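Re: duplicated header lines in exported structure tokens

Our pipeline writes sequence and tokens for each protein into one text file. With two proteins the header for the second block appears twice in some exports. Here is an export where it did not happen, for reference. First protein block:
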Amino acid sequence: MSSIQAREKTLRKKVGFTLVELMVVIAILAILATTVGIYVFGALDDADQAKAKAEISNLKTAVKMYRIKNKRLPNTLDEVASFLDPPKVPLDPWGNPYVYTKEGNSAFKIVCYGADGSPGGSGVNADITSED
């Protein structure tokens, strides 16, 4: 065997990665993916809450316009649909209907119960109201 052949054989043995090196790379990639995922899902939750606040604000304006036009509060949010664009009462970002309650002749409240769809909670499950 010539020295060139011996050198080529030695080089061939050193090419490639060991199982330990591959496992370390995979572990690092998993940690990075988890970190990025946490921030992305947190941003999506914030976006859903901002969307709910904006929709409640639009519904609140539509209720006030209805009250000016009809001299009374609507009984349901469906009655104010004609003041919305498109003329349909939206569901909250989590697919639940907004809750509308009249509090006397001139006061009202619109509530989104958050991701869990039930009253109370904190974080992404926190209630969002027209009083906020």
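Second protein block, exported in the same file:
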Amino acid sequence: MEVLADYLLFLAKAVTIVFAFGAIVALVANAVRHQRQGHNDRLDVQSLNERYEALSDAVIDTIADEPARKQRQKARKAEEKRRKKASKLGKSETRPKLFVIDFDGDIKASGTDALRHEVTAVLQTAEPGDEVLLRLESSGGMVHGYGLAASQLARLRDHGIRLTIAIDKVAASGGYMMACVADRICCAPFAIVGSIGVIAQLPNFNRLLREHNVDFELHTAGEYKRTLTMFGENTEEGRAKFREELEEVHGLFKRFIEQFRPQLDLNTVATGEHWFGTRAKELNLVDDVITSDDLLLKASREKALYRLEFHPRRSLQDRLTSAVDGAWRGALRSLRHDTGTTWD
């Protein structure tokens, strides 16, 4: 029986590996085929009103009695018929629109590329009375990346489109730089808000190199082309200049925030500290304490809600990397399941 069990375990592993390699080949072939066909950038638009209606219908259809259920179904069919007829006649939505955009920021603010296209789409289609809700989650990152992201949001205000930003978890440092552009900032009670400060850090291996008799040379043109280095010997003059540059960036950060939220006491909030939602409201960092879910639910009763999501074209290399990585992770999960082994 032990021999049979070992054989079956070996067979399971072998089948899993063969399946994984087969899946990788299929995914690579599929990626190449899609690349040849040419997948362009695309903008997905989803009606959130329909999603809320579907959630409500699912519950009511379950708990309602038969006559009430039939009456609701009849009303839904009549509404769908009305919408189709209006669409054929070329009639657009009469309610004001609320465009919903998501921004999940990393250290590079990589989502800025999609954000700029989403903002452009809104500017091309928005009518008087339309608004934008941005659901923002970011702990901040590179100054130039988040500066550009904040500038994209400022385009909405420059065109007279009201912007609300909802923070459910965190909008700190560069994330708050983006948030302060909004006409209205909302956050959940325990969302982390603030961190109006600048940080920079780097290790220095100069002593380690000297211990191993390794020379390091750095040649620059310009007195302050390089202030601190990882491998050279840093000087007090270089450190002072580096701190001066950090203070300059901090000053730019504070002036940017003051431009959009003059009601803030920067001496109190621009210390690099962060606060939770309720305290952030007391400090005027946010305007209301409410989750994005409640914001959207309330808006759905009087506005047409549309979620925008831009998908840039991915290169063949990105598609292949993603396909192989996904297949490999799937194979590892299968092996762990078959053998009861865990690893990171």
